[in-house]
Design a protein that fits this description.
heterodimer; A: mainly alpha; 11 helices; B: alpha/beta; 5-stranded mixed sheet; 10 strands; globular
Chain lengths: 223, 249
Amino acid sequence: MFDLGPLWLTLLLAASTTLALLAVGTPLAWWLAHTRSAAKPIVETFTALPIVLPPTVIGFYLLLLFSPSSPIGGFWLSMTGSTLTFSFSGLLIASMFYSLPFMVQPLQNAFEAVGRRPLEAAATLRASPLDAFFTVAAPMAGRGFLTASVLTFAHTIGEFGVVLMVGGNIPGETKVISIAIYEHVETLQYANAHILSAGLLIFSFVVLFTVYALNRRFPINVG
Amino acid sequence: MRLLRIFSWVLAVGVAGWTSPAVAAEALVAAASNFSQALENLQREFETNSGHKLKISLGSTGKLYAQIVNGAPFDVFLSADQERAEKLEQAGKAAPGSRFTYAVGRLVLWHPGGKSGRAVLEAGGLRNLAIAHPDLAPYGTASVETLERLGMKERLTDKLVIGENIGQTFAFVASGNAEAGFVAASQLAQREEPEEAIWAVPPEMHSPILQDAVLLARGQSNPAAAAFFRFLQSPEARTIIRASGYALD
């Protein structure tokens, strides 16, 4: 039977990255949308860097950062007994860096579109800030959440360079679909490369099409 | 429109300036990553003496082979095995009869900051062990054969981390991410490394790493490629290759 392991691993990585970035990216985007702090442009710049930087730059620095001789890599090794390089956890962290702008930027835009007024209205009705966020702001920014999640998921599926540099090509751990395809192409196993590539192409098309079609059918109004 | 015309003029003049009167020729050499250091030494010697220029493209033998099969514009191929060089010859992609063994690779187990040797593998304490991809890099194939020979392959399978080529494998170990790794002796030849950190794998533990070169079809009409190919077989080139960590008689 043809090995579909890389496909499942990729989907798991993309889903985990999306969930983790929803947790981290939402407060960050919220802060960026509402802050008047002088630090805002700096944070925005850092957030956007992964769009500009080649994956090799991210991969190179992660390789140094994950190394047991660095404080972070050393700490992780002493806590877990394994390195961040060559592990699923490491790929998850790498993907979170790599896909960060794809989560934060759409969310920030959505939160900015919602604005402050609905929240102020909620506050006058004695909603706590957290309550107001979940019952008022979040639903109003629904389309932003959808866009951010789809982009993050899709971008993580398309990840290649960073994984090639820090992954170590371990089946079930770091051998994601892009790496498996690369390997098939390099060993001239074009039939296998076709199966995975065409599968990925169809899958990506269906996911994106579903999102766009649903979005058109059931538009979520913002602000 | 005018701007476009000016732009294309600038471009045309620029391109002409780059490419025109080439006194010496230039050859594009595709080489297996393990040969990187040796090739740099050879290149220095060759370029000063011949006046020709070399451009070098490094990668795993398997990757470069696939690129050549698909029409990559290389003039010379320095494979890390015999098989792929031979296949190119049979497929008519290389000059017939040009194939020869330019180096014999030596596999070593590198365990920086510790003692190397088969005992390191047998003790089972390694966090991970880097090898090159066995389907792409002949050094990777030899590494797997060695592990099989030692009866350690099953035990170490889940500790293996795989570099796309021997250069990446080396980097995994050098950066400290992998605790130990099977690399090429040539990669350590110019590095100050305590002797105990390196175990020269006995040659009988794996099939010999005979590295063959072929003059590719494209390179036949390139004077730089032909000259480099001749130089590679000269006694002085062989001395450089030997000094760069290869066995060669």
